[in-house]
């Protein structure tokens, strides 16, 4: 079995710059042959760089740089399964897959396909969710289209466009995004020009023993958003059984609010750190490297969701 193909999900509201970013990636990377799945058939910007060779079942088109673009009226799962069939029968080949979501799409359902479907997860490895944010129009969008908040909550990398037009409130806006998602990296972007090394650094769905969570205070005039995130840190060890019961309770009580969560956990009488991550009610965990004699064991958890009660969570974990 070959190594799974890395997958990147590109999301963001209408006009945020998703297609501009995608075209930049297709034209300027030289290492990978990329397959692109479009949610909408006949994306004009990508059609403009199509050469030839169309497969009727998936509408696979060969692009000028040797990459391919496929669109389908079928559900995403059927499209992925057809791609797997063509990979296994050597009808096509590629080394990266990018999915451009429609502007109104909640990426949660797309993410779950790669985490819960055995065959899809064997062929594809989800590397990260890239969310484009229009700095000028985001305050209005946050207020009127709640999907824009969810798109930020799921992100591993947030790319902010049009920042030159909000110079007087740029820092407060970046703080707001960091408050909404404590674990995503945030970068400004102009005309889709992305530092492509950021893609190589994305590994948002792997279990990692390296903490990279951050806390961010709200700006003085916070935007009206429901998505929030917070980090819980603790130096005392957890009892594994009581911790598992608490997580089970959280997944039941907040099933409609949780977006993403990730943790490094210090478990009593166990020499290795426990690594955990999840999206909504889907989660996985494994024991990682052992704590060394030169480091003080700790636990660090980050939760991202819709109106999560931060103080209630803190009390629940601190009382264990």
From TrEMBL:
Any Pfam family the entry gives: CobW_C
Matches recorded under InterPro entries: CobW-likC_sf (IPR036627), CobW-like_C (IPR011629), CobW/HypB/UreG_nucleotide-bd (IPR003495), P-loop_NTPase (IPR027417), Zinc-reg_GTPase_activator (IPR051316)
Keywords attached to this entry: Chaperone, Hydrolase, Nucleotide-binding
Domain CobW C-terminal: 227-320
SUPFAM superfamilies: Hypothetical protein YjiA, C-terminal domain (SSF90002), P-loop containing nucleoside triphosphate hydrolases (SSF52540)
Catalytic activity: GTP + H2O = GDP + phosphate + H(+)
Protein origin, superkingdom: Bacteria
Membership in a protein family: Belongs to the SIMIBI class G3E GTPase family. ZNG1 subfamily.
Known function: Zinc chaperone that directly transfers zinc cofactor to target proteins, thereby activating them. Zinc is transferred from the CXCC motif in the GTPase domain to the zinc binding site in target proteins in a process requiring GTP hydrolysis.
Official protein name in the record: GTP-binding protein
Organism: Commensalibacter nepenthis
């Amino acid at each position: 079995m070959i190594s799974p193909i890395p997958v990147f999900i590109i999301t963001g509201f209408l006009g945020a710059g998703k297609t501009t970013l995608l075209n930049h990636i297709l034209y300027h990377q030289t290492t990978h042959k990329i397959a692109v799945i479009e949610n909408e058939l006949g994306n004009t910007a990508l059609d403009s760089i199509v050469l030839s060779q169309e497969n009727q079942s998936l509408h696979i088109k060969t692009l000028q740089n040797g990459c391919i673009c496929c669109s389908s009226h079928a559900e995403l799962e059927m499209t992925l399964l057809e791609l797997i069939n063509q990979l296994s029968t050597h009808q096509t080949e590629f080394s990266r897959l990018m999915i451009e979501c429609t502007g109104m799409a909640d990426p949660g359902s797309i993410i779950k396909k790669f985490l819960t479907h055995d065959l899809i997860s064997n062929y594809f490895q989800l590397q990260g969710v890239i969310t484009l944010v229009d700095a000028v129009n985001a305050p209005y969008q946050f207020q009127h289209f709640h999907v824009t908040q969810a798109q930020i909550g799921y992100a591993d990398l947030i790319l902010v466009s049009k920042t030159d037009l909000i110079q007087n409130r740029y820092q407060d806006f970046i703080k707001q995004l960091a408050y909404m998602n404590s674990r995503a990296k945030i970068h400004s972007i102009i005309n889709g020009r992305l530092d492509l090394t950021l893609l190589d650094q994305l590994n948002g769905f792997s279990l990692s023993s390296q903490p990279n969570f951050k806390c961010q205070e709200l700006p003085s005039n916070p935007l009206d958003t429901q998505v929030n995130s917070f980090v819980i840190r603790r130096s005392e060890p957890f009892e594994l059984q009581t911790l598992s019961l608490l997580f089970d309770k959280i997944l039941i009580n907040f099933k409609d609010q949780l977006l993403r969560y990730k943790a490094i956990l210090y478990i009593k009488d166990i020499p290795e750190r426990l690594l955990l991550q999840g999206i909504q009610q889907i989660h996985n965990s494994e024991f990682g490297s052992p704590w060394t004699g030169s480091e003080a064991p700790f636990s660090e958890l980050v939760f991202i969701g819709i109106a999560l009660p931060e103080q209630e969570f803190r009390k629940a974990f601190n009382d264990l």
